[in-house]
Design a protein that fits this description.
This protein is of the alpha+beta class. It has helices at 21-33, 67-72; strands spanning 3-15, 52-59, 82-87, 90-93, 100-113. It has one domain: 2-Layer Sandwich (60s Ribosomal Protein L30, Chain: A). 16% of the residues lie in helices and 39% in strands. Strands 1, 2, 3, 4 and 5 form a five-stranded mixed β-sheet that branches. The longest helix is centred in the first third of the chain and has 13 residues, at 21-33. The model has no long low-confidence stretch (mean pLDDT 91).
Length: 116
């Protein structure tokens, strides 16, 4: 099996209050996947559920992202996808330091098996 990269999409998600890194990450994925509509897989004799999806999330505190929950937010894929969180994004503390705003970035790569 050889996976062929077919689509790369980027998105940004924000949690304005609560410092919920998973919420910001999931919103970034939502933003990324709603920038396009994939129809080309039919030319390959595939469906959207045949895709393997790789998600990379950039946030200031990657260990606070539930990557399984982010991956589960994807509407399609063959269950072989991955999600990793890396240092990136932006965290702005509130004036009193008790809250803050998080910005997460997502890159989603869609691969299909070339059946070779």
């Amino acid at each position: 099996m050889a996976l062929v990269r077919c689509v790369t999409e980027m998105g940004m998600g924000v949690d304005v209050h609560g410092l919920d890194f998973t919420k910001a990450a999931t919103r970034a994925v939502f933003d990324a996947i709603h920038h396009s509509s994939l129809g080309f897989q039919r030319m390959l004799g595939k469906t959207a559920d045949d895709m393997t999806v790789q998600v990379t999330i950039g946030v200031s505190q990657p260990d606070k992202v539930d990557t399984a929950a982010v991956l589960a937010s994807l509407p399609h894929g063959n269950g072989q996808g991955t999600c990793v969180a890396v240092v990136g994004g932006l965290e702005i503390p509130s004036v009193d330091g008790n809250d803050g705003m998080l910005i997460a970035n997502a890159v989603i790569i869609v691969n299909f098996d070339d059946d070779k």
